[in-house]
Write a structure and sequence with these properties.
This protein is 28% helix and 24% strand. By secondary structure, it is an alpha+beta fold. The chain starts with 6 loop residues before the first strand and ends in a 13-residue tail after the last helix.
Length: 397
């Protein structure tokens, strides 16, 4: 804590993922929404090469993506690997009497705002666990399961939550000598039309549909450009999505339910993040998925479907041992009103603060963030109580 008795939150964002820019949008939203009377925010930007920087310039949208000139104004830091929650200056400058001591930045709670690989997939959560740091969101296991669409489906299917059948492909299945046979194996088990998507990515990157065998081959090849695993599953041509967020607590709190509006069968990256929000302008253009058109608590959806979606989301939250805040996305087939789990979004995923502002009772974004910090510190204290060391039995004095 600082002398002003504020909780210090380090927001980690950027990273080496294809979802780098989405992470920047999330971080800007989060940093602007924190209550400055309660929290001191340290922005920590990780560039595409993996170098870490901090500085107030990172609070402004117009500075992205950072240029070499801007980076000269920033401070390179690294996360200490010993049991201290702090950031440490890299290569401190030399002074009159030698190298100056490295500047150190104590941190109370980390918020990993990375999307995609190396952040949302449990990597950074695992390191924060290793050094005993407090952080917002789910742990490594839930994050890694949530990041892998195939594993998430398998895990939730075991809990009797309905999922669509799917086929998982490894990049080795798509070597030229095997590609034709792989396609035939897929079509022997699944009927066209089909959905193809990278298994370990979000933000609708690399997804496409296939109506013909030729389109299927093209779609799979395109998805493999973004991931080493690809998932193929039936395409529901007459369906709608319902998304709901769950907040850790006793009992769990459930947000409003949204039904995204779409002009096409698939929601693309552009529709999610560029339409309405746009690429230009001020802070409003950093609205991310909040700019997507949607129906909140749609009244034309049968209440039994809405209730079932809420129940499935809470069951999934518990079954995956989630922490903090998680959004669950479902598909509803209009032909028979069957509900299917689609994917899980652990933090940062899609923060979905608009769902909480429309919840009953409403939970504004600023209060939601404060609650997530409180949960992170509470979980950290609980972990400290667990006995990690036993009496020495092999190596003795």
């Amino acid at each position: 804590m600082t002398q002003q008795n504020k909780t210090i939150v380090a927001v980690l964002f950027g990273g080496r993922s294809t979802e780098h820019e989405i992470s920047v949008i999330t971080a800007l939203q989060v940093m602007d929404a924190f209550d400055s009377t309660q929290f001191e925010i340290i922005p920590v930007y990780v560039d595409a090469e993996g170098y870490w920087y901090t500085g107030e310039e990172l609070r402004r949208r117009e500075n992205f993506l950072p240029t070499p000139e801007l980076k000269k104004k920033l401070l390179r830091v690294q996360l200490t690997s010993d049991l201290e929650s702090e950031l440490v200056e890299v290569d401190p400058p030399k002074g009159w009497f030698g190298v100056k001591p490295a500047r150190r930045f104590p941190v109370d709670v980390f918020f990993p705002a990375f999307h995609g690989a190396y952040g949302e997939d449990g990597c950074i959560q695992g390191f924060l666990e290793f050094i005993g740091a407090a952080y917002m969101g789910s742990g490594p296991r839930a994050a890694s399961i949530g990041m892998n669409k195939h594993t998430a489906k398998q895990t939730l299917a075991a809990q009797k939550i309905p999922v669509l059948p799917g086929i998982l492909l490894d990049r080795r299945d798509w070597e030229p000598i095997r590609a034709d046979q792989t396609t035939q194996d897929i079509l022997a088990n699944l009927d066209l039309p089909l959905m193809v998507k990278p298994c370990n990515l979000g933000s609708s990157i690399g997804i496409s549909s296939a109506q013909t065998e030729e389109q299927l081959m093209i779609s799979i090849a395109g998805a493999f450009a973004f991931d080493y695993q690809v998932i193929v599953e039936p395409l529901l041509e007459d369906m709608y999505e319902l998304n709901v967020s769950v907040l850790e607590g006793d009992p769990y709190r459930v947000s409003a339910v949204e039904r995204p509006r779409r002009e096409k069968l698939l929601l693309t990256f552009e529709e999610k993040y560029l339409k309405n929000g746009g690429k230009k302008g001020g802070a409003k253009s950093s609205s991310g998925m909040a700019s997507l058109q949607r129906d909140i608590n749609p009244t034309d959806v049968p209440e039994e479907i809405m209730q079932k979606v809420r129940e499935f989301a809470q069951k999934a939250f518990s079954g995956l041992d989630c922490r903090g805040l998680v959004r669950f996305d479902f598909m509803v087939d209009r032909k028979d009103n069957e509900i299917y789990f689609n994917e899980i979004n652990t933090l940062p995923g899609s923060f979905s603060y608009y769902l909480w502002e429309a919840a009953d009772p409403p939970l504004p974004f600023t209060e939601l963030l404060a609650e997530l910090v409180r949960k992170a510190q509470e979980n950290w204290r609980d972990k400290k109580k667990i006995r990690r060391i036993t009496e020495r039995r092999i190596f003795k004095d």
